[in-house]
Inverse folding.
């Protein structure tokens, strides 16, 4: 069961950072997509429908487990 208090913070370091939500279940699919511009921040929450988030572009990602920065 997913925890509704699990979330991540994404801060774009360039224009055009893509944040893509992926579904849970036996058939994983894209279900939501956002595009962030430099300096924009998005808070994404994991739910019973969202099991993963894919990030394309330069960004800083903060989670309860720490912070990571994308290479490209």
């Amino acid at each position: 069961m997913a925890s509704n208090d699990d979330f991540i913070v994404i801060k774009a370091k360039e224009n055009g950072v893509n944040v893509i939500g992926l579904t849970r279940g036996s058939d994983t699919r894209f279900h939501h997509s956002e595009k962030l511009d430099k300096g924009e921040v998005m808070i994404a929450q994991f739910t019973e429908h969202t099991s993963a988030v894919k990030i394309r572009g330069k960004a800083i990602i903060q989670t309860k487990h720490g912070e990571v920065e994308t290479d490209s």
Q: What stands out?
A: The chain has one domain: 7-64. The first strand starts at residue 7 and ends at 12. The domain at 7-64 is CATH 2.60.40.50 (Immunoglobulin-like).
